[in-house]
Design brief:
By secondary structure, the protein is an alpha+beta fold. It contains 9 helices and 11 strands. The protein folds into 2 domains: 126 residues, Jelly Rolls (Sandwich), CATH 2.60.120; 88 residues, Winged helix-like DNA-binding domain superfamily/Winged helix DNA-binding domain (Arc Repressor Mutant, subunit A, Orthogonal Bundle), CATH 1.10.10. A 4-stranded antiparallel β-sheet has the order 1-7-2-5. Strands 8-9-11-10 form a 4-stranded antiparallel β-sheet.
Length: 244
């Protein structure tokens, strides 16, 4: 059996197109250079001239930008099945950093191998382009989340988006999901203080919608949470098992 056959990336791409045996074989080749990275130490730093991308196989990563005053802004969180640094490979220089939140396993994909894979299997390249386009759509939605939604809606929308993404790779359900993020991570990503995030999570728990403790998100009333967040998963371009 190919190592990549049941990988999170393969599961995600299969939501877009049924991959052939040849395409799975090419994906398998892209998974060969597996590396471990420890939590808290950047695997790619802002301004790095990158010649490789990574396929996240296990663990969670945050992508962030450094500000001139030394502070950072979290852009997004990457989960298994996501490409890391794909844009920086094509644009030559990374415009943001990637930091593992927990110890992770990732496959290093040199630029030449990536371009060769796309040349061999154009349909696989199209599937990866779909995944990249989906990531871009999420960034747009995040801008709306920061600019137009109140704190309760931001937190609710964020948790539902994570659940949908994780469901696509077999790591989340309507019941909930394992989540290593802290309230500080949520605060940074959502433009809130950690105190405000704590207050919102307490309110959502008291209203019997969702709990988030001990690294577990548990949905109590997911329909009410969807209504609160006005969550429409159309931008994720999936009819995954969570919200179908």
């Amino acid at each position: 059996m190919h190592a990549a056959e049941n990988s999170p990336l393969t599961r995600k791409l299969m939501a877009f197109v049924a991959l052939s045996a040849k395409e799975v074989d090419v994906l398998d080749q892209l998974h060969q250079r597996r590396r471990s990275f420890v939590a808290g130490r950047d695997m790619v730093h802002q301004g790095q001239v990158a010649q490789a991308a990574y396929i996240l196989a296990a663990g969670w990563v945050c992508s962030y930008k450094l500000q001139p005053d030394g502070t950072r802004q979290i852009i997004d969180f990457q989960i298994p099945g996501d490409f890391l640094g794909l844009r920086s490979v094509l644009l030559r220089t990374s415009d943001h950093s990637f930091e593992p939140i927990v110890d992770i396993l990732a496959a290093e994909v040199p630029k030449r191998d990536l371009l060769d894979a796309f040349s061999q299997t154009p349909r696989l390249a199209t599937a990866v382009l779909w995944a990249a386009s989906r990531d871009e759509a999420m960034v747009v939605e995040h801008l709306v989340r920061l600019g137009r939604r109140d704190a309760d809606q931001r937190v609710a929308h964020f948790l539902l988006e994570l659940a949908s993404r994780l469901a696509l790779v077999g790591m989340g359900t309507k019941a909930g999901f394992a989540c290593p993020l802290t309230q500080y991570h949520l605060a940074d990503a959502l433009g809130l203080s950690s105190v405000h995030v704590n207050r919102v999570l307490r309110k959502l728990r008291q209203e019997n919608m969702v709990t988030f403790k001990n690294g577990q998100v548990r949905f109590i009333n997911i329909d009410a949470l969807i209504k609160l967040a006005d969550f429409d998963p159309a931008y994720l371009d999936q009819t995954g098992p969570l919200l179908a």
